[in-house]
Design goal:
Keywords: Membrane, Transmembrane, Transmembrane helix
Number of domains: 1
Radius of gyration: 17 Å
Order of helices and strands: HHHHEEH
Largest sheet: 2 strands, antiparallel
Oligomer: single chain
Number of strands: 2
Length: 155
């Protein structure tokens, strides 16, 4: 990989971490921990989930790069890689929400969480939107970083 991949990856990682951290705290009232947990438990849950989000984001990006990227990414194949990484993140999130809410009962939605039924499985809307919005913004910022790095090298 050449052509601004380092700048793009750095910006993607920072935007992903900041975006997911903000989203985790903002949608906390949609989970029962907001009412039932202490402030410390809520803060720990948000930080813990953000760590998981960053790992999911990096894993999704690496898989997308292996499947669709090439040595000139992000100058080439940027959009297909971004689209697949987002799809992988959304897919994993839907599975994880089902597993942790329905099967393991590790957490639960409050009555405020909008619910979608996907293939007969009920999943919270907020985490799905999180995995569309945050990566889309992170990829937009990463694309700009790559373009800027490429322009500086051509000077």
């Amino acid at each position: 990989m050449s052509g601004g991949w380092h700048a793009a990856l750095r910006r993607y990682l920072i935007a992903t971490a900041v975006g997911h951290l903000a989203w985790e705290f903002l949608h906390m009232p949609l989970y029962t921990i907001w009412r039932e947990g202490t402030w410390g438990e809520v803060a720990f849950a948000a930080l813990h989930c953000t760590g998981g989000d960053v790992l999911i984001a990096l894993t999704s990006l690496m898989l997308a790069l292996l499947l669709l990227g090439n040595e000139t990414w992000p100058r080439e194949r940027f959009r297909p890689v971004a689209a697949l990484a987002i799809a992988l993140g959304v897919g994993y999130t839907a599975f994880s929400e089902w597993l942790n809410v329905v099967v393991r009962a590790a957490w639960d939605y409050s009555e405020l969480m909008p619910i979608l039924s996907l293939f007969g499985v009920e999943v919270g809307l907020s985490p799905l939107l999180q995995w569309i919005v945050v990566p889309a913004v992170a990829f937009a910022l990463a694309g700009r970083a790559a373009a800027s790095a490429g322009a500086q090298r051509r000077r």
